[in-house]
Amino acid sequence: MIRNEPAQGAVAPINPWRLCVAPMMDWTDRHCRYFHRVLSPHARLYTEMVATGALIHGDAARHLDFHRSERPVALQLGGSEPSELVQCARLGERWGYSEINLNCGCPSERVQRGAFGACLMAEPAAVADCVKAMRDAVAVEVTVKHRIGIDRRDEYGFVRDFVGALRGAGCSTFIVHARSAWLTGLSPKENRDVPPLRYQTVRQLKQDFPDCTFVLNGGLADTERILHELEQVDGVMLGRAAYQSPWMLADLERRLFGPEGAPEDEAEVVGIMSQYLEGACSCGVPVRAVVRPMLGLLHGQRGARTWRRLLSDPLFLQQHGKDSLRAAAAHAPPSVRSRAVRPAEIHR
């Protein structure tokens, strides 16, 4: 598979962060990102978080390879040592990533043991050193994803001062999960739901740092609410909504950037992804790795349950192999199954 050739005919949006898909562990791998790019040519896509040690001491290509059509795609790094982050940022730039993002928002105990993630918000000067070191080393944008507080330190001044320290180091784009991270007492899953959402904090950051870009993340699952929030911040980042109801990306593509690049319907997406699945299988990629991000494609429609059940069934995938998506579409509503699968390109 091709990794870093420029996509033919791709046109960058005026604001690259207007619509983003969150970095999600065990989810936003290269196959998921390919699928999301089919749905939205303009969305900014992010890798899963990659720890610096995994790149420096492991198989860099396994973590970094991507298909040319995924661009613009950002590499999210987990780490706290400036020299290691610089080494990995240079790798990401060399591989063709459009952005290097530093994770200051993950609350998991494993990440805390590595001294990175949300716990870094307690050390703004150290994070600023990391940001400056990477900015000095690479030409691509260096951004930070963070929370609005940690544990009970969730007063506005805490996150304002954190952003201010990073702004002084040259960071101008902040992706803000509008919840505090409770580093003790809550699991990572609970940290995505229990601490209350406070979108007003992100709006206030935008007012206090008008020259910076602020992307709102957390709990965004309704198109109209997203459009409302975009009147007050620079961009939005979808997390769970991107895999629970991925067609929302196609809807937002039309609403934010116009209909020209968005897929016409789910049948077109199935056709494109069927061709991708054939190529992936020929390279030894398991069928499940490609179809798993597509389980929610028909969310809210008649036949959605059957679609999910078939594509979650190992025996079904084993039986149909590279034709699994077409076989599942045969059981879908007429709007999906009636159109013949035809050759198509992601960038029309």
Features:
nine-stranded parallel β-sheet, 17 helices, two-stranded parallel sheet, single chain, alpha/beta, disordered N terminus, 12% strand
Helix content: 40-55%
| C-alpha geometry | globular
Query: Tally the helices: what do you get?
Result: 17
Radius of gyration, taken over Cα atoms and rounded to an integer in Å: 20 Å
Total strand count, please? 11
How much of the sequence lies in strands comes to 5-15%
The unreliable regions are: 1-13, 340-348
Mean pLDDT: 90
Largest sheet: 9 strands, parallel
What is the structural class? alpha/beta
Order of helices and strands: EHEEHHEHEHHEEHEEHEHEHHHHHHHH
The rounded distance between the terminal residues' Cα atoms is 20 Å
Topology record:
Blueprint: E1 19-21, H1 30-39, E2 45-46, E3 50-51, H2 52-57, H3 60-64, E4 73-78, H4 82-95, E5 99-104, H5 109-113, H6 124-137, E6 141-146, E7 149-150, H7 156-168, E8 173-177, E9 180-181, H8 199-208, E10 213-217, H9 223-229, E11 235-238, H10 241-244, H11 247-257, H12 266-282, H13 287-291, H14 304-311, H15 314-320, H16 324-329, H17 334-337
Parallel strand pairs: 1-11, 2-4, 3-4, 4-5, 5-6, 6-8, 7-9, 8-10, 10-11
Helix pairs in contact: 4-6, 6-7
